[in-house]
Write a structure and sequence with these properties.
InterPro entries: Polysacc_lyase_14. It comes from Gloeophyllum trabeum (strain ATCC 11539 / FP-39264 / Madison 617) (Brown rot fungus). By secondary structure, the protein is mostly beta strands. It has helices at residues 85-91, 164-167, 181-188; strands at 6-10, 32-33, 43-44, 57-62, 77-81, 96-105, 114-123, 142-150, 169-176, 201-210, 215-223, 232-238, 241-249, 258-268, 281-293. Strands 1, 3, 4, 6, 11, 12, 13 and 15 form an eight-stranded mixed β-sheet that branches. The protein has a seven-stranded antiparallel β-sheet with strand order 2-5-14-7-8-9-10. The protein starts with 5 loop residues before the first strand and ends with a strand.
């Protein structure tokens, strides 16, 4: 049984990308590396089949009390994914790249205070790695664009029935970009955005949401800036609809810097105990895809 990756070269065509090849959801084939050894990502059969194809998915387990990979009770998993060898070669010279995955949170998922989800990353060589966790050094030589889910308390003015599984999965882009004033201004111009000190910017909080018991397709498009110009772009799509778009960004100041793939990481947190998973629970990931946009 296999899941799939879709690879294509596009000329600004609508989502989803036109498939030209499929591979198994395999660490070796998909270029999985720098994996957290103590946090496995086993292939299992999820409660619902992935919408793309195949019958298996990577399973993330969040034990009760787990916060992040370095805590006393770690949860989730983490690794980097560059795609098959040919795709890795192509993106090294690409100006604009789209990557996608599918995520399923179990029915009745308890969102807690929030947690991380995979997103695109890149930069100059090995400096692209570890562009998170409050990093301040060499921030002009890396970018990391994971997503987050956040707790969203019910509105006191709402007339609809409160559903904690649905209403608490508030989404955002959690962006680590070069620390420039124009980057900050353009991210904060997106409704629902806010800074987090030396940590990533919360961009577009509440622009989309996750619902337990239903697959969600997440896609990101990154267009690198020309060196010396503020013309980079980041866009997030949920189930094929653009929900967050930021233009006028600087993602690099060196032509060697490029998109390197997906930072495939998920956990509850934050780092302090109030971010912990309220119970033992799971999520599943499948349908990984990539496209080079010309």
């Amino acid at each position: 049984m296999t899941a799939s990756i879709t690879l294509s070269r596009l000329h600004h065509v609508p989502l989803p990308p036109f498939p030209i090849g499929r591979t198994p959801l395999s660490d070796a084939v998909l270029g999985v590396h720098n994996s957290s050894a103590h946090l496995p990502h086993p292939l299992t059969t999820p409660p619902l089949p992935p919408p793309s194809c195949g019958e298996v998915a990577w399973e993330a387990f969040y034990p009760a009390g787990s916060v992040n990979p370095s805590s006393a009770i770690p949860g989730g998993f983490g690794f980097y994914l560059g795609g098959p060898e040919g795709f890795r070669y192509e993106i090294a010279g690409a100006r604009e790249v789209l990557m996608e995955y599918e995520v399923l949170f179990e029915e009745g998922f308890a969102w807690g205070k929030g947690g991380k989800l995979p997103g695109m990353f890149g930069g100059v060589g090995d400096l692209a790695y570890g562009c998170s966790g409050g990093r301040t050094k060499a921030r002009c030589q890396c970018f990391d664009l994971r997503l987050m889910w956040r707790y969203a308390s019910p509105s006191p003015c709402s007339t609809s029935t409160y559903n904690p599984s649905r209403d608490n999965g508030q989404g955002e882009l959690y962006a680590y970009l070069p620390l420039t004033a124009p980057n900050a201004a353009r991210m904060l111009a997106v409704p629902g955005s806010r800074p987090n000190g030396d940590y990533g910017f919360s961009v577009g909080r509440g622009a989309f949401g996750f619902e337990g018991g239903r697959w969600t397709t997440v896609a990101q498009r990154v267009r690198l800036n020309d060196i010396g110009q503020e013309n980079g772009e980041v866009e997030v799509y949920i189930d094929g609809t653009s929900v967050i778009s930021v233009q006028g960004l600087t993602l690099r100041d060196d032509a060697v810097s490029h998109v390197q793939g997906l930072h495939f990481q998920t956990f509850f947190g934050g780092s302090s105990p109030e971010w912990a998973s309220p119970k033992d629970q799971r999520a599943w990931f499948a349908g990984v895809s990539g496209a080079i946009l010309i």
